[in-house]
Write a structure and sequence with these properties.
246 residues, alpha+beta, Rossmann fold, two-stranded parallel sheet, 7 helices, flat
Length: 246
């Protein structure tokens, strides 16, 4: 790598784990190398970024948070001096605020500084993650087959079926670039090929205990058919169990 930090293009970097170390690493690299020279991608096993700086939010009010991992940040005098630019960046962005309260069991020494994150500790990670401008993933393309095709090829080798589907997609989209990755899924979920005669909505198979068969096969195979079937189940339940609106 040359002294002026120029990198031959393209270079791609994969960071496994979107915790504090990974996010700061990405942020620092982005400050050195533009996106044209370095693309950054994260792999994270959890639903969101944070790692041990994990923040949970109330389902009813996202402003209500609880930090399940780190609760606060403590900076020793030496660390604060050597990392002052990081602290100032987070304080200026109001991600961190000084905390002067009492922490039970803390062995605080002279010159130590405590900070908390009003929006949750994972906001620290997200701040660095956002500044790293990670690579966008995609685009992706999904090809659905017809029901008759699925029935005909259900037990065929998956690789053979995938080649048939890709070949057909290329006929429709001849300029489509070669995929980086492709996957064929054998869909074994219920697919209605012939509905129940009369579209009853549901059928009570047993009254005691109550056992009801339902789904779009008992009405119409679409979104509204599912709603109709659900409403039919509720009616059947109320009639058989003699339960009405409370």
């Amino acid at each position: 790598m040359s002294a002026d930090n120029k990198m031959p293009s393209p270079h791609r970097l994969l960071i496994v784990g979107a915790g504090l170390t990974g996010s700061v690493t990405a942020s620092l690299l982005r400050r050195k190398f533009p996106k044209e020279a370095l693309n950054i991608t994260f792999w994270e096993k959890s639903r969101g970024a944070g790692g041990r700086m994990n923040t949970n939010r109330s389902a009813s009010d996202s402003r209500c948070t609880v930090d399940l991992g780190a609760q606060y940040v403590t900076a020793t005098p030496d660390y604060y001096r050597s990392h002052e630019s990081f602290y100032q960046e987070l304080i200026s962005a109001k991600v961190l605020v000084p905390f002067n309260g009492i922490i039970e069991g803390e062995n605080k020494k002279e010159g130590m500084k405590n900070f908390t994150a009003p929006s949750g500790m994972n906001s620290i990670v997200k701040n660095f993650l956002n500044s790293s401008d990670p690579e966008d993933i995609g685009p992706s393309l999904l090809a659905h087959t017809s029901v008759p095709f699925g029935i005909e090829h259900l037990e065929m080798d998956m690789n053979d079926v995938k080649e048939i589907i890709i070949s057909h997609v290329k006929q429709i989209l001849p300029d489509l670039p070669e995929p980086v990755n492709s996957r064929c899924l054998r869909w074994r979920y219920s697919q209605v090929s012939r509905g129940v005669d009369g579209s009853p909505g549901c059928i009570a198979l047993c009254n005691s205990p109550l056992l009801v068969a339902c789904g779009d096969a008992f009405s119409h195979s679409n979104f509204d058919g599912c709603i109709d079937s659900a409403m039919s189940v509720v009616d059947t339940f109320c009639k058989i169990t003699s339960v009405s609106n409370l």
